[in-house]
Write a structure and sequence with these properties.
It is built from 20 helices and 2 strands. By secondary structure, it is mainly α. The protein has 2 domains: 401 residues, Sodium/glucose cotransporter, CATH 1.20.1730; 78 residues, no CATH class. Strands 1-2 form a two-stranded antiparallel ribbon. Strand 1 and strand 2 form a beta hairpin. It starts with a helix and ends with a helix.
Length: 498
């Protein structure tokens, strides 16, 4: 089924509408603080919904239903850990961030340990985020290409171009406002899809439950434990209750407590209390969202009567939802669903562009000796130039992968996890180990990243445990460095007195 004129019109109106509305809602901004932090006047409920949209890429939109189609709803265990992690961030991190009047996540490390560590961790963030987001943008173009028939380059330019315009003109206010709109659009598209599936089945939901639960198969199952007997088998088993709760907690603490991609929004709230409310709204919505997309996958399983992927001519579970969209939706609704896919993509991309630009300008480019708003016009011009630069860099990076197969894509999508454990461990060293110094933090962070690299590349350990291991290695190395430094000082003290 090709795109009709109606489908094309819907897509065009959506892209144009988002671009224009984003810039108008943001209004005229005069300072880099307004541009990157929304003047710290953002409504908490908008920030909370923006967090949901910002962390929901097209891969989530497409992949989560596919997970339920091929297995069950065990992925939801990870979402339970996400709630715990967000609660800990709201209690442990956010009060410290607002006491220090921070501008970025890495500003905390600068005030706690020194400017050198702030710049270093910011540069690590820039490297990992641009690699991960560039490949994610290409991966986003895959379902859009399959559904619309557009070339990969066209899909990438459509998504990236519109996002760059409203992000560079409207700043964080535009990002948050359009995230709320995009959340409604992509969830609306998914709801329409589920309604069509239920309508097409003779007995609706009754058919779903009958097909999903039969002959020992239960597609609604959530709780799973590891069947492995040894420690390594236990850690290598994906989506277990322990891995979901513990791993999900640490993953959420790392992403929402140390990653500028999401921390930037939390710092845009009026008060620490508002920031905490936004994070808890995000926690509540993300569980409901994952549960809904998993149920959508179960409905797809019923729609295709439990057919295997091979019998449907599909290479992976990620293709099951796009197949339904292309094959079953009438014109008009097809355009709406493509707009929904674009919405989920643009929410993540705008977050990446804004966070990269803010970290570059506030952590690295702007010198501390210069007043933050010493030259407002130049400050705003530089902020916008950096936003456009990173947007173009992500588009260019995505173009490099248009002839690349899955292995490099998978590496790019997981590259941020190499530093998550080290970053979280370094923040925890700063929060709870008052005697640690910058040298200890450097030792801990580099050790954590090295350990994570070995674990990811040379072990079968499931990704849900990666951040836990990297965080533990970082804290252990940082404390060991502190101990060695203290021991050296104590040994030098007698000789100094003599």
């Amino acid at each position: 089924m090709g795109l009709s004129l109606l489908d094309g019109a819907i897509i065009f109106v959506y892209l144009a509408g988002v671009t224009v509305a984003g810039t108008l809602i943001a209004g005229r901004q005069k300072t880099s603080r307004e541009f990157f932090l929304g003047g710290r006047q953002l409504a908490w409920w908008a920030v909370g919904l923006s967090l949901v949209a910002g962390e929901t890429s097209t891969l989530t939109f497409i992949s989560i239903p596919g997970l339920a189609y091929t297995s069950d709803m065990r992925f939801l265990q990870l979402a339970f850990g996400y709630v715990i992690g967000r609660l800990l961030v709201s209690v442990l991190f956010i009060p410290s961030y607002y006491r220090g009047d921070l501008e970025t996540a890495y500003d905390f490390l600068g005030k706690r340990f020194g400017l050198s560590l702030r710049r270093f961790t910011s540069m690590v963030f820039l490297l990992t985020r641009v690699l991960a987001s560039g490949v994610r943008l290409f991966a986003t173009a895959i379902p859009v290409h399959l559904i619309s028939g557009f070339s990969y380059a066209t899909c990438i330019i459509l998504i990236g171009g519109a996002t760059i315009i409203y992000t560079s003109l409207g700043g964080l206010k535009a990002v948050v406002a359009m995230d709320v709109v995009q959340l409604v659009v992509y969830l609306g598209g998914a709801v329409v899809s589920m309604a069509l599936i239920l309508h097409s089945l003779p007995h609706g939901w009754q058919d779903v439950t009958a097909i999903a639960v039969h002959d020992g198969v239960n597609k609604f199952a959530v709780l799973h434990s590891s069947s492995g007997r040894g420690v390594m088998e236990f850690l290598a088993t994906p989506y277990t209750l322990a891995g979901g709760l513990v791993g999900g907690t640490f993953l959420s603490m790392a992403s929402h407590g140390t990653d500028q991609l999401l921390v930037q929004r939390l710092l845009g709230c009026r008060t620490a209390r508002d920031s905490q409310k936004a994070l808890m709204l995000d926690a509540f919505c993300i569980v409901l969202q994952f549960a809904f997309f998993l149920l959508l996958g179960v409905c797809l399983f019923a729609f295709y009567h439990g057919a295997s992927l091979q019998s449907l001519g599909l290479a992976s579970s990620d293709e099951i939802f796009p197949r339904f969209i292309v094959g079953q939706l009438p014109h008009g609704l097809l355009g709406l669903l493509i707009a929904a896919v674009l919405a989920s993509a643009m929410g993540t991309l705008s977050s990446s562009i804004s966070s990269l630009a803010s970290s570059t300008y506030l952590d690295i480019f702007r010198m501390p000796a210069v007043p933050a708003e010493g030259n407002e016009r130049r400050s705003m011009r530089t902020s916008r130039v950096m936003t456009v630069f990173w947007g173009a860099a992500l588009i260019g990076g995505a173009m490099l992968f248009t002839d690349t197969r899955n292995p490099v894509v998978e590496l790019g999508l997981t590259i941020a996890s190499f530093t998550y454990g080290g970053m979280l461990g370094t923040f925890l060293l700063g929060l709870f180990f008052v005697k640690t110094r910058e040298s200890d933090a450097y030792v801990g962070f580099l050790t954590g990243c090295a350990v994570m690299t070995c674990v990811v590349l040379a072990s079968p350990i499931d990704y849900t445990w990666h951040t836990v291991i990297g965080c533990a290695a970082t804290i252990a190395a940082g404390c060991l460095s502190l101990g060695i430094r203290s021991l050296r000082r104590s040994r030098q003290a007698p000789s100094d007195r003599s």
